[in-house]
Amino acid sequence: MSVHQLTIGDIECAVLQEGAAFMDRESVIARYPNVEPADVAAALGDSEPSGSLNLLYINSGGTRILADVGFGADGPAGMGGTLKGLAELRLSPAEIDIVFLTHFHSDHIAGFFTPAGEPVYGNAIFVTMQAEWDEWMGRWAASGAEADQENLARFKAQQDRFQFVSAGDEIAPGVTVVDLIGHTLGHAGLLVESGGERLLHVVDLLHQHFQFANIDWHFSFDTDSVQAVQTRRRVLQQCVDEEILTLFYHLDFPGLGKVTREGGAFVWNPTEFKS
Ligand SMILES: [Zn+2]
């Protein structure tokens, strides 16, 4: 099953699984530069690494929002589930009103364009943080890689359709932008709030279960590792204090659950669903 539907008050939501098995064990173990690989391996234990890609779809009062777009139809094998998930919800990409880009890593944005370079979500406005746009336009401009130059040209061609938001901005009724900077310089999540219920999408605040107990481990894909640790500590503590339903992009599908704290360690409690 690649779609998990839920409601937050009056707001319809769904988690769409773009794909699973995104990272293998060896590459996970190599991605924590301030930790001995043996310690990462021990923290991982016998369990497989998390590798899901969980996208959040929101319908707030008829405004249809997709947070990130995954790899899309032409991504690696096993990816492309977002478009299938939308079809299961009887939606076409043309019916999405807002594409919210949490950050510009390829597992979140590669499905933004068709092979011809046209936006897949052709009627949507595109929303992201200004700092995120600035980081990637700069990084791609400085890169000689063909794929980066292509991204630079394609995104710049769509610049007029982008709306740049700040933390606290409401992009639709009950849907608010949340600051998660560190993983990238404009990494952002969404808080969905209606009828006394809340869902916090924290995207790439962390990538593996063992990071709950080791929040100061740097992750090689974090642009600002020190800021990322501070943000992890702050947001995970907020999740504990407010007992809020939380969504992680890369934890096992659907990536929903609650964070608790036992002594110095945060603990992930995935919501159990009947299959
Ligand atoms: Zn990611």
Please give a structural write-up.
The structure is a single chain. Helix 7 links the parallel strand 11 and strand 12. With 275 residues, the chain is α/β, with parallel strands linked by helices. The strands form two sheets. A seven-stranded mixed sheet has the order 1-2-3-4-5-6-7. The chain has a seven-stranded mixed sheet with strand order 8-9-10-11-12-13-14. It starts with a strand and ends in a 5-residue tail after the last strand. The chain has one domain: Ribonuclease Z/Hydroxyacylglutathione hydrolase-like (Metallo-beta-lactamase, Chain A). The chain contains seven helices and 14 strands. 25% of the residues lie in helices and 29% in strands. It binds zinc ion.
Q: What is the level-2 CATH architecture name?
A: 4-Layer Sandwich
Unreliable residue runs: none
Counted up, domains total 1
Shape type:
globular
Q: In what range is the share of β-strand residues?
A: 25-35%
Helical stretch tally: 7
Terminal residue distance: 9 Å
Number of strands: 14
SSE-based structural type: alpha/beta
Average pLDDT metric: 95
Helix content percent band: 10-25%
Task: List cofactors, ions and other ligands.
Answer: zinc ion
* CATH level 4 superfamily: Ribonuclease Z/Hydroxyacylglutathione hydrolase-like
Q: Report strand order across the widest sheet.
A: 1-2-3-4-5-6-7
Summarize the structure.
This protein has 275 residues and is of the alpha/beta class.
Could you name the key traits of this structure?
seven-stranded mixed beta sheet, 7 helices, 275 residues, 14 strands
Topology, pairings included?
Blueprint: E1 3-8, E2 11-19, H1 25-29, H2 37-44, E3 53-60, E4 63-67, H3 81-88, E5 98-100, H4 106-109, E6 125-129, H5 130-142, H6 146-157, E7 162-165, E8 170-172, E9 175-179, E10 188-194, E11 197-203, H7 225-242, E12 245-248, E13 256-262, E14 265-270
Parallel strand pairs: 4-5, 5-6, 6-7, 11-12
Antiparallel strand pairs: 1-2, 2-3, 3-4, 8-9, 9-10, 10-11, 12-13, 13-14
Helix pairs in contact: 5-6
